[in-house]
Amino acid sequence: MKITEGQLRRIIREEMLIEDERRRAAMMADVEGLADLSAPADTWGYYGSDYKSYDARRKEGRTSTERKLKSIWNKHADHEFFDQKMAKLHAIGLYGNNTAPCLNFLDAYAGKVNRDEVSALGWRESKLMTGWTKGNDFTFGVFIDGRVTFAASKDLGTEWTSKATESDRQRHASSGLPKRPYHTNNPEIERYVILDEEDWIERIEGLSNSANQELIVANWQIKSLVVSSSSREGYRIQQDAWQTDDFLISVFNKCKQLGIPIMDEAGTLYYSPGTSFDEDLDGDLDGNEDLSRGLA
Fold this sequence. Notes:
Layout: H1 5-31, H2 43-46, H3 54-59, H4 63-76, H5 79-84, E1 86-91, H6 101-109, E2 118-124, E3 140-152, H7 166-171, H8 186-192, H9 197-203, E4 214-227, H10 232-238, H11 246-258, E5 262-263, E6 269-271
Parallel strand pairs: 4-5
Antiparallel strand pairs: 1-2, 1-3, 2-4, 3-4, 5-6
Helix pairs in contact: 1-4
């Protein structure tokens, strides 16, 4: 009996679903031993200053349980999917409108492996498109390579590394500062955890849910600078009007100096190392129309 292409796709899909169910059941069996932790009194309490602090979470007795939860996720997650098929984007200054941190961020983190964990948005590389970051109000970000250590279809409420004290940094000197999910109860984990590609398709892409997600990424490197296509700066670049903007001129020069490509969230290149732009910055990007598309 000859199997059609459609039938083959259906068989593969069913096998993936079965594997996804097994993976999820195995993780939740391990999660059963975790202690439930108290939820914040209200939403604003959750987003208040205490949850961001390593010290406050240690004093509350959260650290051990949240560390175990990450360990369980890493035991059961499909790392090949997250690390090799997922585009990972860290938004620079996501919670502020000041664009100046972009240059400081590139100076601090470009050209090396960074051990402090970082939060990121994700999307399957094969499905990247303009606007997939809709709902996340950022102007500049970076596509990064690194190892995903947790994934969820919600804001994970992780610690902020900017809140780390010198004592925190000394405690994690050998591995870098961790970021851990804010844990409340085990049924909640079942609702938000993402373990593999099937979870991602169902809980993120299937719900057009790009805004309500978070990846935690370790040992990461910057691949390219991302300028949101929907931002003022992205629009000026698309219209070849960036040459009259002093800040964008400084961004292009910084990326040229560091050898970092500039692109939008879909992977469409604005500038690539090895090509040049006019030294007086009053003309089009030389060769821009011939640059390849993608993240490779």
